[in-house]
Design brief:
With 162 residues, the chain is an alpha+beta fold. The chain has one domain. Helix content is 35%, strand content 24%.
């Protein structure tokens, strides 16, 4: 057996896990508090947006409508727009809520595997106007959706935060 083949599968798996972890770390800031106290959400597919607590796990109900996380950007010309929307599948949202409330004293840490699983396999993204949600774990499709594109076609936008 070729010694190189012996390490090909574990090496490939390691690279895939690394990409997933890096993606998770880059994107988790958008749905966790960290230094941010608020985030933007929308109930009308990104046409308008509002600021609310960054602790909220999308989707949630607001005024009888489903509120989704809205990733808002500002182009160099000042135009503000929702680049993409984000939500969690019901089972992922439930896991995140359970992790958040599992120990109100904060003495025990929530199970990191459940949290990572919710972020990696339970998060979905889409552009405003698209009908289909894409699992964020599908890196190829998700990266096309989350790529920053100003309405005028330029790629000069920066994140706009509440």
């Amino acid at each position: 057996m070729n010694p190189g083949k012996k390490f090909a599968i574990p090496g490939s798996a390691l690279v895939i896990v690394f990409v997933i972890v890096v993606t998770f770390l880059q994107m988790r800031g958008a749905t966790t508090v960290g230094d941010r106290k608020q985030a933007f959400f929308t109930v009308d597919d990104g046409k308008t947006w509002f600021a609310d607590s960054a602790d909220k796990i999308p989707p949630f109900e607001r005024d009888g409508k489903e509120a989704l996380l809205a990733h808002v950007y500002r182009c160099r010309d000042g135009t503000k727009f929702v680049n993409y929307l984000e939500r969690f599948k019901p089972e992922a949202k439930q896991a995140l809520e359970k992790a958040r409330t599992s120990d109100p004293t904060g003495k025990t840490k929530p199970e990191q595997g459940a949290i990572q699983g919710a972020y990696v396999g339970g998060r979905e993204v889409k552009r405003p106007g698209d009908a289909k949600w894409v699992n964020a774990a599908d890196y190829r499709q998700a990266s096309q959706i989350t790529a920053i594109k100003c309405p005028n076609g330029a790629a000069d936008a920066t994140p706009f935060e509440p």
